[in-house]
Amino acid sequence: MVQILRLIGGRILLSLLTLLLVSLIIFAAVEVLPGDVATRILGREATAGSLAALRAQLHLEDPATLRYLRWLGGIVRGDFGFALTSARPISVILAPKLFNTLILALAAFLLYLPLAIIPALIQAIRRDRPVDHGLSVVTLVLLSTPDFLLATILLFIFVMTAGLLPSMSIVDETSTFTEYLRAIALPALTLAIVMAAYAVRMLRDNLIEVLDSEYVRMAELKGLSRRRVLLRHALPNALIPSLNITALNVGYVIGGVVVVEKVFSYPGLGSQLVNALQLLDYPLFEATVLIAAGFYIVANMLADIGSILLNPRLRSGQ
Amino acid sequence: MRHKLWLSTCAGAVLMLGLVPGSGRAASDNCIKVLGYESSGEKESMDPSGMYSGDDAYHIFAAYNRLLDLDNNFQAVPELAESYEVSADGKTWTFHLRKGVKFHDGSDFDSADVVYSFKRLLDPQLATGAKQVLTFLDPDGIKAVDPLTVTFTTKDPVVELPVLITNKFTGIVADGAKAEDLRLHENGTGPFVQEEFTPGGPVRLFKKNAHYWKAGLPKADCLRVTVAQEPVAAVSAIKSGEVDLVLNVDPSVISTLKGDPNVQLLQTPASNSMTVSMWTDTPPFDDLRVRQAMKLVVDRQAMVDTVLLGYGEVGADNPVPTGSPASFTKQAPAADIAKAKELLAAAGHADGLKIDMFTAEGVPGMVRMAQVYAEMAKAAGIEINVNVTPAESFWDDVWLKKPLLTSAWSMRPAGEGLAYPYRAISDVNETHWKRQDYDDLLTKANTTVDAAERTKLYQTAGKLLADEGGVIVPMFVHQVLALRKGCSGYTPHAQNFNLNFEDISCTK
Prior knowledge:
Number of strands of chain B: 19
Oligomer: heterodimer
Helix content of chain B: 25-40%
Largest interface: A-B, 73 and 63 residues
Order of helices and strands of chain A: HHHHHHHHHHHHH
Strand content of chain A: under 5%
Structural class of chain B: alpha+beta
Largest sheet of chain B: 9 strands, mixed
Low-confidence stretches of chain B: 1-27
Distance between the termini of chain A: 5 Å
Mean pLDDT of chain B: 89
Number of helices of chain A: 13
Distance between the termini of chain B: 51 Å
Radius of gyration of chain A: 24 Å
Helix content of chain A: over 70%
Low-confidence stretches of chain A: none
Strand content of chain B: 15-25%
Mean pLDDT of chain A: 83
């Protein structure tokens, strides 16, 4: 038990360190970006005088290290500061966007599980039959389809041809549950399909390997039903190696929402990120990236802890 | 246990798809639904002085009025001012304000509000792009004579003052209004009253101003503005009837809307110029013959057809469209490759010319224009290496820093369009065109009260710029809008920020 706690504690500490490093990299990257936030705010036709006044107002003339420490100090105290462009608190700006993206990611993951597991199961059972080859071709095609194209195709099928869903996934605080469902259906489906296409191939191979193993044969010989063998014995063991690909998929979702949210006009963290970068609103941009990086790091940490806990060799240490 | 979890997941997935048609537009069915295309996100502001990009106009022009409005020929027409006159020396302008106008908070509109609105824009503490376009105004020269009369007195005569003060920043705010309040909450006199607005928020909602000073207007009870930056989403939104008006249809999707009986395509007049700009003081463009050759290689109609897919008009190398009364010509020059070669040879480039051109998709179509231009120039032995740079930083890092690049300008009144980037002292002189005789023409026009005489001066200046200047204006863009069938009363304006939602109405 102590050993596991120590392992987990080590992982958490490492994650925090990574986060700190990420904050430094983000800040440095923004520093070397070309362009000037004052020009972005006032437009390309602003006078030199008003640009200088605005720069002073925004403390843009302070040294970078001072601005970094000021920013980091705020975050440690839980204060992300204010956006340069609108002077609104960043927490107020990001909260609803974060909520929207989390809902979208959650829905995408819920869709992703059956989309990944069911085809993999079918392929593993019907190994080398036409249905296996057929599904392989489908996953390969989906793997090589860029997400924005997939999103556009879904938009075409569900909105323009079938007229079933709204073309713009616009939601805000006043939206009802049904409105949310309709709004996130297509973006979530896009993300889920892209993630599933990666996972299906891996899961199929894992399943086949497990089905060939001796304990499965043993279970079959014991006379257990095929269904029970598959679901109780084979699948859980095939899932463990897939945990990591799921954690990697979290990384994809963070990047994927940028594209998908734009195609479907969904007000989430992804579109916020692009906008903050375009405006060179560095506190807003840095906070957004830091939150996204935080999620990625936490997801990986949880996947690691998950495999620590699921690994019998480590479990037996108690 | 585990397969039960699956079952519920699958059920959830089906539910998630929400394949129940028809419940999408429940909340706001009596609203006119406008779909914009620009998004400046967190920078969005309700404050007219903070007008940054086109998407601020979606809400500011719904909520505010200006003293005057401009028609499509850039002539000033009354709005909050019923009439105006100028003194004989051309230095004092008197504006007579409309009576009985109320701000959205119920207070009365009078001359103090006008004085405050303009003085505020000139305040060095206020971060606004307005100062650049109001340099001729002196805060001490703006005076309230009585509650319904305001005078603007300038040091020198500014004959175009009514037009110049009618820019995108000059929405009239109430006396004493603070910038930090105006950013999030409007208090204007305009046709619509803010219900819902957050910078970067997905929906802007307005209700009808029941006390609007134009009787019977606005026609719509409510206005709902959303933004879709993806052209395909905009197309499906108007096709499915989710929106009533699409403010800009991307050229790439125009063809999918063209044959649709439920959609009407509208076109603005020339809404911005597209330019190829050369530094007139830097080789090889310091040689007039090279500049002329560069202009002669362009097949302008072909450029409009390929770059703008026909939604535009040809230009004559100056910022005034050929249809304007202030244009020196009704006809754009034709391509003449032989003449171009001749001029190049005379300038010592008989073996051709190799040059770098810089461009970015900073304005839609700019990259395509550069590529098409390079192809056309090849015929005359001019080899152009097109450098495409990132659109995000083009205006900061490339524009004004390279001797040959593409640029674009939104439409301005003739006098302003000719002066703004082409006077010697201009901060944005992208062609390094510094000619005393050109500046003198514009200065003279600025003090010429007689309109016909002034137009003649603009024509002379335009011709000089076209013949000898460093700018090629091969074309002007017409923006395409889409209006849902059953809707009427929307007129697109040449200045694309000048949005007027007063007359639009739809039958369901």
